[in-house]
Amino acid sequence: MKDKIAIIGTVGLPAKYGGFETLAKHLVHQLADRYNITVYCSTKKYKRAERRKTYNGAALKFLPFDANGIQSIFYDTLSILHALFYADVLLILGVAGAWTLPFVRLFTNKKIVISIDGIEWKRDKWNMLAKLYLRWAEKLAVRYSHIDISDNESIQDYTALRYGTISRVVEYGADHTEQVQISKEDIERYPFLTDSYSFKVCRIEPENNVHLILDAFSQLPHKTLVVVGNWEVNEYGQTLKSKYGKCQNLILLNPIYNQTELDLLRSNASLYVHGHSAGGTNPSLVEAMYLELPVIAYDVSYNRTTTEKKAFYFKTSEDLVELIQKTELSKLIAVGSTMKEIADRRYRWRFIAEEYHQLFQEAKTTNRKPRIKPSVSPTSNKLEQLQAQHLTNSKLVFEK
Amino acid sequence: MNQIDLLFLIASTLLMTLFSVKVFKHLAPQLGLVDKPNSRKVHQNQIPVVGGVSILCGLVLTTFLNTHLYNAIAHHLVVFGTGFILLLVGVFDDKLNLSARFRLLLQFLAALAVALAGYRITSLHGLFGIEELHPIVSYAITVVLIAGVVNAFNLIDGIDGLAGFIAVIGLSTFALLAYQLGQFNSLLILVTVVLSLLVFLKTNLSKQKIFLGDGGSLFIGFLMVCFGIEMINASQSLTTVQTNKTTISVIAVFLIPVLDSLRVYWTRINYGHSPFKADKSHIHHLFLGLNLQHKQASVAIAIMALLFIGSASLLISSFGITITLVVLMLLVLITMTLLNALKNLKEWSSKIKSLEN
To answer: Which residues of A touch chain B, with CB atoms under 8 Å apart?
Structure first.
């Protein structure tokens, strides 16, 4: 009999939204023949007519709460409670419902695999109360799960430092994106496609450094930049749009949910500018890498890890201006190929799903999460007597 | 005691304490009573540690000028005598280098001395359903409580104004109780000590500041706990409502220092350290961690203390003493947990920043 897996914490399937939904879609696609998968979905984002009972072999359960914001606590909690009735392994994406985990561990024998999804509590978009809750929930998620997953090595360092346990790094796939040929109609809609342009797609939030990037390109009138994002939802976006909307070389587009259309724009770009400063491995970055785009990324550990320190990096708009002006075309092309090589090696859904499969199997036989710090730390005197001072030079994996 | 006597008492207390502060501040370097900065301390210059000595000297001088106060203190001589010894031990601790155990032993002896003299908890007044205590239990509880509270008060003396504020609030509450209970000897003493503390606070919070010092905080903490017990005992002959109100008010005064020190000990033991290992985890450090200035943190904690004392008298008018105490303790613990979480949030945010770069 196949093991039963419940995937909890996504908006739902068919995937229309962010990284977790795409992950759920590909896990179902890759693993449905090995597991009985149930995916929890939000009725708030699927109209009655859109709600399906199954999707590619996975059962879908709909709950009347939003999967994001404060309602995600109820959404995840109810999903977890429901899954307890049948599932062998609960794959929980996000920490909102983690307050239930101590009880789940105490009263049931269910196996819990949880993805903590970046350091959510640190993000600027949350108020202080939400931060406190998310930070507490993250602690419970790591302490009371059988396996916790980070999507980036830098987050693994953080959990090791804070909790003394090793989180598993599983990133995202990108091979659902594809090169799209430009048609005449495309050029009519997007005239910039005929020339060379830089591209960026993201939520318009300060932590994605949109202001830095727009400022840099506004100083480079001969370089076209296309930015796709939700400009109207907050003051930050509105201010940027009114400030830079009139610049001839800056094309600010509204969100595009059609995958092919988005692929059309990014796969034909000549440069990808990635300003994200938070959230671990960003799906949009790995997708750009898979499309062989040269990458200039904001200089934080997450982006360096994702690109294996082989892309170009900027901290300020001056850095960005200088990089764009001075970097030769041949170098850009070389970086694009390197990015593609990394993405081919690491960011394929087949590999990602396989890693999840391994983790599910491991969770079934795991009861305790091993601690990485030694329980005994010999004093240096003792080591000296034993002529083993070299042991003091050892560094744990997160002590870089 | 008429109005002129009262005015004279107030004026003489203020003047005598001010005089003592000036003299001891001047003499502090010669006497070696200065606090040198180190990594754990938040100040940067040498500060005279003469608050306790000045307050005591001010009190002694005022006593000789005022017969009513003289008589009142004569009634409580054992408290002041023992408190004086604690003060001396605290003042000369640095020089004599006494061990923590010896200091604790002295505090137990001091507690035993006043317990023998009648400052003793003889009943829990229905708290957790317990009434009269067996004499041995009564002595044991009294001694442990006095030593515990004195230590807790000593630990809270970490930033400018805090111990002063808490003492002024606590002793004023006791003065109010003494007035309601008709304990005029105690009232006189409490008002005098509050006035001296106000003089000390003014200097403590000024630029040319002085510290209360270990001796001072032991002495003031000791006075507070003894008068707290005195108030509870004085209320015993009155109605149960009055006794409950007095008992819970006295407990509320000590709630922040006592629960904070227990929390700090608990955290240290949890980390595998000695409970007496100095660190930066006290309640005032939690407030400083929120980027508050010293004075702001002290005022915030003082307001917290006032709110707890106020809530105590509100709650006791509707609930029994046990429920009131449990609710109060929960309130304090929730507040401290929240503060701790906020401090950790800040610390980890900057740690993550350095991990990200």
So the answer is: 119, 121-122, 128, 131-132, 135-136, 154, 157-158, 161-162, 277, 299-302
